[in-house]
Amino acid sequence: MTAFDSVEEAGKALAAQGYLTDDRLATMVFLMTRLEKPVLLEGPAGVGKTELAKSLAAATGRRLLRLQCYEGQDESSALYEWDYGKQLLYTQILREKIGQLVADAPDLHDAVDRIGAQESVFFSERFLAARPLLEAVRSEEPVVLLIDEIDRADEALEAVLLEMLGEYQISVPEIGTFTARNRPYVILTSNNTRDLAAALKRRCLHLFLDYPSAERELDIVRSKDTGLPEALARQLVEIVRGLRELELRKSPSISETIDWARTLAVLGVDELTAPVLSDTVSVVVKYDKDVRKALEALPRLVDPNAEVPETLHGHGHGHGHGHSHEAPKVSADRGSRSFGRRS
Ligand SMILES: Nc1ncnc2c1ncn2[C@@H]1O[C@H](COP(=O)(O)OP(=O)(O)OP(=O)(O)O)[C@@H](O)[C@H]1O
Ligand SMILES: [Mg+2]
């Protein structure tokens, strides 16, 4: 049972769910479904890492199971827990039965042994509360498993994931090993706040998801029906790309481009001017210092000829010079560099 017959089909199926890919991303999705290997998506905030897992689930008709990682998280929230409350309830209801079991025990030692012999009753699947990883392995139907923001969890949790990522199985000492009937599609995401263990990386296909090309970002904005006229959306995408080059503390992401487009549409803007963009810039940049940098750059981004600093004269001649050429190059570079890290 394969999800997609070709890279193209994978891209189309995701697009039908409102998720637009480029060739590299569609290839990765196709490969992950074929090779049955987990995918590790790294990249800045808001470039569509989480959304990819959701869209893949929708495109393949699979249920999405999600493990949201956080600092200090322990393995029981990822794998399973013993349902203590249920165990207690059962022992209370069965008090009489348990009483009979030990009624004629000659001493405490013997009574404990007799109870011990029944332990497997209480540490059986009945009392197991499955968390996302075990749930994914036990599921009758194939699922998509999203392990979101793995870099927020401690390294110990990474180690816990290895058995699952490598063999699609989970061992519960009291019961045995559960092996997935249907291999889940596993997507891990990371914002790169720390380096992940080599053992984890080795088990995954790796993709650095960067800001999209101008064309794809425009396609995405268009697909969201923001209400902003085409020409303005195109210009807005270029302006956001310009902001990304400012080395802000937090660069605007795709979702912020979409928000900005919606904001401007609601305001009924019919021309992108520096004042209009300045008034709404807080939709896309969220830190004080970033806002100041953005305000300074906006007049130049709106009209490259307007206020070109003295030092750049004779360089920035053509209208809109640089944007559509330079930016894609940067993202392509970043992508291949991080692919190089894989081994
Ligand atoms: N390829 C895409 N096609 C359509 N929409 C997209 C795409 N990429 C991103 N988006 C939009 O951007 C939003 C943010 O994406 P998402 O939440 O997946 O980002 P993320 O990479 O998981 O960010 P974070 O690291 O902050 O969790 C999505 O809700 C979606 O609207
Ligand atoms: Mg996310």
From TrEMBL:
Residues 306-343 are annotated as: Disordered. Pfam families: AAA_5. This is MoxR-like ATPase. CDD domains: AAA. Coiled coil: none annotated. One of its GO terms (molecular function) is ATP binding. It comes from Amycolatopsis methanolica 239. It comes from the Bacteria.
